[in-house]
Amino acid sequence: MMGTKPTLIVLTGPTASGKTSTAIELAEILKCKIISADSRQFYKEMKIGTAVPSENELERIEHFFIGNISIHDYYNISKYEEEVLGTLSELFKESNYVILCGGSGLYIDAVVNGVDYFPDPDPETRKELKEILENQGIEELTNRLKDIDPEYYSTVDLHNPIRVIRALEVFYATGLKFSKMRKGDSKARNFNTIKFCLQLDRDTLYNRINLRVDEMISSGLVEEVKSLYQHKNLTALKTVGYREIFDYVDNIYTLEEAIEKIKTNSRRYAKRQITWFKRDKDYIYISPPDAVGKIVDELRANEFCFY
User: Fold this and answer.
1) pTM score, whole prediction
2) What is the 3-state secondary structure (H, E, C) of 149-197?
């Protein structure tokens, strides 16, 4: 048995790979709770487009960090790290296990290893970069990032202006690449960690992505996005599924074109997620079917105390 410390089970994988259902089934076996590591599911106004667990799934197992903030709130990864560690300290009083489930690799790394120190942004630099975003689009910013830090460019969500701007801010403030500054020593944690990544073949994953998008449309994604239209310039809403429907509302695309754009951009996002996960050699890859059974077998094989 791996000491007397409790165990954090990380369960990740690309979008639409089945993380939520797998985590819930595993949590029911282990009698534990789930913390979300999906940065888009934090926002209470964004339910359909971020594929939050259903009401039934939330009733089966208690989840944390889903719908916990508003799109109008300021939130960052350091605050997430701090709040998750506080939640873990309480949950480990109830169970030897907690599952950290989601596809936001940077947020998973923050919980497991800690957030590296970065200088506070220069207000003028941030203002300038936001003006570029507003006037020239995110492509200008991502092109700059590609030139100065191709390693981070290859893994970051290129449609997420917060992360792109932050990497540029760090470089302009220090002259150092964001990818290099993120490779500091891990912070000590008072729990064991074992990390699993769901792995599907490309055709299966892409079919699941397409099906999920169709289900989102049927569930009212267009109506959800329209209800948020007046806030479309908020950073939280500049994300896959919302950005494309905003363009439909603005008559840039037909609805059919917007749906195809969501599917295409979701597949691209999945590819970037896979690239991110592959850089971490600690992940144990699990493929359906019976992903839960395989995870349980790995827990036993690694001599983590079992229920």
Assistant:
1) 0.83
2) CHHHHCCCCCCCHHHHHHHHHHHHHHCCCHHHHCCCCCCCCCCEEEEEE
CB atoms within 10 A of CB 134: 10
Higher-pLDDT residue of 75, 204: 204
Residue, of 156 and 218, whose pLDDT is higher: 218
Q: Which residue has the tokens 């709770």?
A: 33
Measured distance CA(38)–CA(50) in Å, rounded:
9
In the predicted model, is pLDDT for residue 68 greater than 90? yes
Q: Token pair of 186, please? A: 């891990």
Amino acid at 176: L
- Domains of the chain, earliest start first: 7-116+188-301 (3.40.50.300), 123-181 (1.10.20.140)
How far from the centroid of its chain's Cα atoms is residue 168's Cα?
Answer: 21
Q: What is the mean pLDDT of residues 147-168?
A: 90
Structural tokens at position 96: 């030897």
The two tokens of residue 169 are 């801010």
Residue type at position 172: Y
Q: Which tens digits make up the pLDDT trace of 93-115?
A: 999 999 999 999 989 998 999 87
Measure the CA–CA gap between 268 and 31, rounded to whole angstroms. 35
Residues ≥6 apart with Cβ < 8 Å to 31? 95, 307
| Dist CA 232 CA 246 (whole Å) | 7
Which stretches of the chain are assigned E, i.e. beta strand?
7-12, 33-36, 63-64, 97-101, 192-198, 283-286
Mean pLDDT along residues 129-141? 93
